[in-house]
Backbone:
């Protein structure tokens, strides 16, 4: 009985620590190998999108680039996280960066290639999965966080990044910050 109680206490502490976190508690490495501390974006909404270069939804890079241009001066942060979790990403960061710049003129943040699900998932996606019970089921899943780093909403691959569903939520968050 005593080991069971000890195990429950450890589980409760672990779960409570995860629940008290927000996106600003994490960092991620950009495509050039630089660490990005997400707490530098406090007060700004963040749209986090798992991406892939060889996917039927890859054209959404255009929508993300347009969204970035439209909201650049309004303090929306867009972070694309290339992933090979669904076996549709190029082999290395150099190729991904070149692909994104040449084909989509991306100027928003692109990270190193990471896993977004499973045992090797990046800590951000692991936290989203455990805390919010949301795991990307395919490429181009979108997660919107408020200026405090709390998850506000998420959308599947079929929802375009510049759809009214997403832009209306972004606009609501930006109004709260003004």
Residues:
């Amino acid at each position: 009985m005593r080991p069971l109680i000890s195990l429950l206490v450890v589980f409760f502490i672990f779960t409570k620590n995860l629940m008290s976190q927000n996106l600003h508690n994490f960092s991620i490495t950009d495509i050039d190998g630089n660490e990005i501390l997400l707490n530098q974006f406090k007060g700004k909404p963040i749209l986090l999108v798992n991406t892939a270069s060889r996917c039927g939804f890859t054209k959404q890079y255009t929508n993300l680039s347009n969204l970035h241009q439209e909201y650049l001066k309004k303090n929306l942060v867009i972070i694309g996280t290339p992933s090979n979790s669904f076996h549709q990403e190029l082999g290395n960061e150099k190729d991904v960066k070149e692909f994104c710049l040449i084909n989509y003129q991306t100027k928003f943040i692109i990270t190193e290639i990471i896993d977004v699900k499973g045992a090797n998932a990046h800590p951000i996606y692991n936290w989203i999965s455990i805390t919010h019970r949301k795991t990307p089921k395919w490429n181009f899943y979108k997660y919107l966080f408020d200026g405090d780093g709390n998850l506000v909403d998420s959308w599947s691959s079929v929802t375009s990044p510049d759809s009214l569903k997403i832009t209306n939520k972004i606009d609501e968050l930006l109004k709260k910050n003004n």
